[in-house]
Amino acid sequence: MSDLRMAGIGMTSARTRDRLVQRLREQGISNLAVLDRIRNVPRHIFVDEALGSRAYEDTALPIGFGQTISQPYIVARMSEALLEGGPLGSVLEVGTGCGYQTAVLAPLVERLFTIERIGGLLERARERLKELDIRTVKFHHGDGSQGWKSQAPFDGILVAAAPLVVPPALVRQLAPGGRLIVPVGSEGEQELMRFTRREQGVVRESLGRVAFVPLLGGKN
Questions:
Q1: Contact criterion met (CB below 8 Å) for 194 and 81
Q2: What pLDDT digit, counting tens, does each position of 148-202 carry?
Q3: Residues recognised as catalytic
Q4: Whole domain around residue 88: which residue ranges?
Q5: For the segment 28-53, what is each residue's pLDDT rounded down to a tens digit?
Q6: In this model, does residue 147 exceed pLDDT 50?
């Protein structure tokens, strides 16, 4: 991929990205490392070229397979919520999608594992991260609702699709002190939740209303 394509021009330029970061600050995102990743990860390479001029709008965009790339605010909010409370070692991302959230998060944690049920999306994400020279992520084609048992426990789990109820497998795969960020609920009634494993049990917090595609089982 050319340097010009990576850097962006016009509506994908550095100035456009700076405006996006300023909007995220105004919406309450304060983690400087997260904001820096939003500024520097070229979101336009994760969408079709025809949508490139809209890549730095704070909106979700289609990526094929009936899926979307999450709006930058949601990516930033979930990353910030995951990182609150200290550095993370082993982290699982459920729902790789196009790989944008993966690219934002990868340098902010020690080890990132990502799982995607749609094989075509996973391969596309793998290629994009390779182009960005992000080579520390481990990919898996599988049912994200079951987590990744062989790599558990995880200090953090981030779920990029909404189950009706939290999958028990994900809670079981949290390490002591681990944090699970997940949107929960049916369409139109979803809430972003943070679950933290404590000695006395799992503590839950609501982080506000959100809208995600549903978390589906199986793989294809």
A1: yes
A2: 999 999 999 999 999 999 999 999 999 999 999 999 999 889 999 999 999 989 9
A3: 70
A4: 59-210
A5: 999 999 999 999 999 999 999 889 88
A6: yes
Output the six-digit token pair for 14: 């550095």
CATH code: domain of residue 83: 3.40.50.150
DSSP 57-121: SSS-EEEETTEEEPPHHHHHHHHHHHHTTS--SEEEEE--TTSHHHHHHGGGSSEEEEEES-HHH
By the 8 A CB rule, do 215 and 145 touch?
yes
First to last CA, the chain: 28
> 190-198 and 174-184 as β-strands: parallel, antiparallel, unpaired?
antiparallel
Name the 3-class secondary structure at 138. Answer: strand
Residue 29 covered by a domain = no
Asked if residue 140 is part of any domain, the answer here is: yes
- Residue owning tokens 């990205």: 17
54 and 63 in contact (C-beta within 8 Å)? no
Q: Quick one: pLDDT at residue 85?
A: 83
pLDDT band for position 140 (50/70/90)? very high
Confidence of residue 13 (pLDDT cuts 50, 70, 90): confident
Looking at the domain assignment, is residue 136 inside a domain?
A: yes
Q: How many domains is the chain partitioned into structurally?
A: 1
CA dist., res. 41 & res. 6, Å (int): 9
